[in-house]
Amino acid sequence: MTREGFDVGEYVDQMGLLLDLKIADEYRDGVVVNFERIRAIANLVNSFALPEDVEVAPVFEP
13 near 37, Cβ under 8 Å? Predict the structure, then answer.
């Protein structure tokens, strides 16, 4: 699932305000790039359809 029109830079700015987290100007672009990577990974994970019979595992044991 992808969201058209989602602005990662705007998201970073809004979350910074919401969390009262000051992001220095020199770091903002790097934060945005990392959130874009997170978004791409999340889209990949969310693109897999799960079968209806999958059960939730309360503990992950690799």
Answer: no
Angle between helices 8-18 and 25-46 (to 10 degrees): 110
Computed over every residue of the chain, the mean pLDDT equals 90
Cα–Cα dist 6/11, whole Å: 8
The C-alpha torsion from 10 through 12 and 13 to 17, rounded to 10°, is 140
> Reduced to 3 states, what is the DSSP secondary structure of residue 57?
coil
Both tokens assigned to 62: 């690799």
This prediction has a pTM of 0.69
Q: Which residue do the tokens 């503990």 mark?
A: 59
